[in-house]
Amino acid sequence: MNKEKEMTAPIVSVGADTEQSSQNLTNNSLTDFDSDFKGSDDDFYREMQRRMAPDYLETVSMSTLYDTDFEGQEPLIDGLIYQGAYLLAGSPKVGKSFLMAQLAYQVSTGLPLWGYKVRKTGVLYFALEDNYARLQRRLFRMFGAEAAENLYFATHCKTTSSGLEDQIRSFMREHPNTGLIIIDTLKRVREVGGADFSYSSDYDIVARLKTVADSYKVTMVIVHHTRKLEADDKFDMIAGTNGLLGAADGGFVLSKEKRTSNAAVLDVTGRDQEDQRLHLNKNPETLVWELESVETGLWQEPPDPFLESIAAFLSSVGERWEGTASELCCLLHLDCKPNVLSLRLSVGSARLLRDHDIHYKASRNHGGRKISLWKEMELDSVSKGDDRDGLLVGSGEA
């Protein structure tokens, strides 16, 4: 999918929930004032005044929520990592940076990681505990002479309080196809001195970085350390308070039973994925982490007959279809109301894109609500000058 221009309007992240909602960050809120407002000028003025009042509370009705179409988002690595902010924690020298280098390389080249499907995209890696000479030696030993052109490294940057967000935004303007940002480590970008590492401050530092990730629809992995004390729940070993993981969309903990061993365990958790435990082994020659086994297999959703019927229908009529929900109900011979069909398409849009490469968009015009369905390949005909939103909006309109 072409993403040649920067996306400047943040959206709710894949993993956002009520505690972590970024709704207040969006330019296109569900409760934005309706431009097609049919009331009088006085009614319009009163409504605007109501919304500008200091005590105004923005709410969304269930009917409005059901009538809103959210853009489907592809996972970065199927079943393992999605858009949003993740923590990767482990003890010092356990191999976190090698794992991050491997993640960065696999994503930048689009090569599968341990059998998991990878979406190829640009990568920005803040290797803040390394230097370029060490990075060169490490990468050559791990991956040989085949370099990835869309993998960028920085060994110095500002802190979150002194301009890191501006540096990331500047990079994204120059490299809008970036889909993964790695910060290694959190300590290096956190403001120095005077910080009370309370739940509130821990939550705030990750939430600020998550806001940047959400605003560009990218994945951000933030490397951190674990404490020395063991715990039954590996995620309780993350140094600091629960605010760090609480603000993130997911987390990884890399641990070893013996420091001298090449064997390690990677525990995975997240808001929109099943918990997993992967047994890894570091290749002593290449230093690449290899998958030995998975305790909890990759959970897969059961087949969805409705989405499969949509895919079969689009294949039968070509690579694109536009019309009303009522027309689509008739063509599919479905005994359901048009608004129910639209809701099922909206809820299943992410899976429709992931499993069938079909984009879905609903729009309104003077004739009513229109549905657009089109295949991924149609985006190839869109000029590279379009931005991320423009690709979807432009392709979804008649």
Core attributes:
398 residues, alpha/beta, nine-stranded mixed sheet
Walkthrough of the structure:
The protein is α/β, with parallel strands linked by helices and 398 residues long. Helix content is 32%, strand content 20%. It is built from 13 helices and 12 strands. Helix 3 packs across helix 4. It is globular, with a radius of gyration of 23 Å. The chain starts with 40 loop residues before the first helix and ends with a helix.
What's the short version?
With 398 residues, this protein is an alpha/beta fold. 32% of the residues lie in helices and 20% in strands.
Average pLDDT taken over every residue: 82
Radius of gyration: 23 Å
Question: What is the N-to-C succession of helices and strands?
Answer: HHEHEHEHEHHEHEEEEHEHHHEEH
Q: Helix/strand-derived class?
A: alpha/beta
Give the secondary structure arrangement, pairings included.
Elements: H1 41-52, H2 62-66, E1 84-90, H3 96-109, E2 122-127, H4 132-143, E3 151-154, H5 164-174, E4 178-184, H6 186-189, H7 199-215, E5 219-225, H8 243-247, E6 250-255, E7 263-270, E8 276-282, E9 289-294, H9 305-317, E10 320-323, H10 325-332, H11 338-347, H12 349-356, E11 358-365, E12 368-375, H13 388-396
Parallel strand pairs: 1-5, 1-6, 2-3, 2-4, 4-5
Antiparallel strand pairs: 6-7, 7-8, 8-9, 10-12, 11-12
